[in-house]
Write a structure and sequence with these properties.
single chain; alpha+beta; two-stranded antiparallel sheet; DUF4193 domain-containing protein; DUF4193
Length: 97
């Protein structure tokens, strides 16, 4: 049987408008629970047992940019002068590629 794809599909629109908002919310909630638990398997695989680092402080000494370094204007990373490709635009070798 041939199908005329140019005719309006009123049956689908009527079915969608007859459904209640509560039924749509329930269907969405059911679909969300079917996705599985919220625990990422990679998180459990990478977690260190007994390694609670909540009370630890990270102390890092930050040095200012040295005389033989520059800040790339595209990636904003500090590089050694040997990585400088374009001195006028101050672009590193990685960003120029």
């Amino acid at each position: 049987m041939a199908t005329d794809y140019d005719t309006p599909r009123t049956a689908d629109i009527e079915d969608a408008s007859e459904q209640s908002l509560e039924a749509l919310k329930a269907r969405r909630a059911d679909a969300a629970t079917d996705l599985g638990d919220d625990v990422d398997p990679f998180e459990t695989e990478l977690g260190l047992p007994g390694a609670d680092l909540a009370g630890e402080e990270l102390n890092v000494r930050v040095l200012p940019r040295q005389a033989d370094e520059f800040t790339c204007t595209q990636c904003y990373l500090v590089h050694h002068r040997s990585q400088l490709v374009d001195e006028r635009r101050m672009i590193c070798r990685d960003c120029a590629a």
